[in-house]
Design goal:
About 50% of the residues lie in helices and about 10% in strands. It is built from 11 helices and 7 strands. α1 runs parallel beside α2, α1 packs across α9 and α3 runs parallel beside α4.
């Protein structure tokens, strides 16, 4: 890995920055010299996260702010973004999760579908909408004194769940698929906004399982079938040693953004392989050769085996449930 990119003088907004991956990203970017503003709903965790980020900053001149709001409320998000003392150069959309909405469609409530879409898709879409509006309005003022256009970046922290259809995750997966579609579409739209004042880039990360407070909560609410399919039906101590930390995933994501990657699957070969079979409108990574070859292997060999295995597990789980009823 190369020398970390300095962010001195830059401002970063991080939604979902009060814990887990969002907080880890905020701490690393603060250590590079950025001003950080984190956004989340709960004030207590926000203030605790702010203390941790303050301790990680490179200089006491850096401003670290914490804003409590409902990220699924478009007007509140826009008002909060516009109220900040600095316009963000970078936006990380890392709010999300699904521990409260796990379950099969027949067992969850309709409101769980709504909540999962709000917490995962709308929290990203509204934040992106607000910052795009702020940036394009700022561009109309003309380029800064610098000879180079300023770089404006949006990074969506999504999930490898967008590449899968795992039973018991039926509220979460469609929301994550929607976030991917948002990033794919916005990646092309922002080409319209590149100008002498600014250059826009979009990035999207698909982390697989990693150790975080959200991961702990999810294990408590996932169905036994979901855990068996994901290979998570084992003691937490074993899982903790098997999966990376939030800090590790944060470093990998940030390094990929530094390289200019659009698709980011750095923490998991499985997630990376799954992407290759469903590239869709997303650009392939690098020259595209590895993604093309791996995509054929996944489509012709891996998925047929996994699909049959999961179908058999679902059938068996249903039969067992009926016997116990």
């Amino acid at each position: 890995m190369g020398i970390p990119k300095s962010l001195q003088g830059k401002t970063v907004f991080v939604t979902g920055g009060s814990g887990g991956l969002g907080k880890a990203i905020s701490k690393e970017l603060a250590a590079r010299g950025a001003h950080i503003t984190i956004f989340a709903r709960r004030e207590g965790p926000l203030e605790e996260a702010k203390k941790d980020i303050l301790a990680a900053r490179l200089s006491e001149d850096q401003e670290i702010n914490a804003v409590s709001l409902d990220l699924a409320d478009a007007s509140n998000v826009d008002e909060a973004f516009r109220a900040q003392p600095r316009i963000a150069d970078i936006l990380y959309c890392s709010a999300g999760g699904n521990h409260a909405e796990n379950g099969f469609l027949a067992d969850i409530e309709a409101k769980d579908l709504d909540n999962c879409m709000k917490n995962n898709y709308y929290s990203s879409a509204y934040a992106a909408k607000s910052i795009i509006d702020i940036w394009t309005a700022d561009d109309k003022k003309g380029p800064s004194e610098s000879a180079k256009p300023q770089l404006r970046q949006i990074i969506f922290i999504n999930s490898a769940a967008a590449f899968l259809g795992i039973p018991g995750s039926i509220a979460y997966t469609p929301a994550k698929c929607a976030v991917r579609a948002l990033a794919d579409t916005l990646r092309m739209e922002v080409l319209r906004y590149n100008c002498p004042a600014s250059t826009y880039t979009i990035h999207i990360a698909f982390p697989a399982d990693f150790v975080s407070p959200g991961f702990v909560l999810e294990q408590k609410t996932k169905t036994p079938l979901t855990k068996r399919i994901q290979g998570l039906d084992r003691p937490f101590e074993e899982l903790e040693g098997r999966f990376p930390s939030s800090e590790k995933v944060a470093s990998l994501v940030i390094a990929a953004v530094d390289r200019g990657d659009f698709i980011i699957c750095e923490d998991s070969f499985s997630a990376s392989a799954l992407f290759t079979n469903m590239t869709g409108p997303s650009p392939k990574r690098g020259l595209g050769i590895v993604d093309s070859i791996l995509g054929l292997l996944v489509g012709w060999v891996v998925w047929p085996v996994l699909r049959r295995r999961w179908e058999a597990m679902c059938t068996e789980d249903g039969e067992n449930s009926r016997k116990q009823a």
